Amino acid sequence: MRRAVLASITSSRLGRAGLEAVATMLATIATLLCVLPISREPGPAILAVVLCLSLSRSQLDRNRRGRIEAFLVLPAVGLAAAGVGVLLHRFPIVGALVFITGMFVAIWLRRFGPMARRIGSLIALPFVTLLMVPYIPPRHPGPLPAWLLPIVIGWLALCWVHLVHALAQALRLLPPVSHTAVVAAPAPESALRPIASTRMAIQMAVALAVSFAVGYIAFPQHWGWIVLTAFIVNSGNRGRLDVAHKSVLRVLGAAAGTLCALLLGVHLGLDERMQVILILVAAFFGIWLRPLGYGWWALFATVALALLQNLAGVPAARVLWPRLEEIVVGAVIGVAAAWFVLPVRSTGVLRRRIADALAALAAALDRSSSTGKPDAFFAALHAVEQVAPAFRATRHLAHRVRPECPADWIETLINCREPVVKLIEQGSAPPNVQRALAHARRSLREPEQILPALQQLRACLHEAAPDA
Question: Rounded to whole angstroms, how far apart are CA atoms 95 and 101?
Answer without folding.
Answer: 10
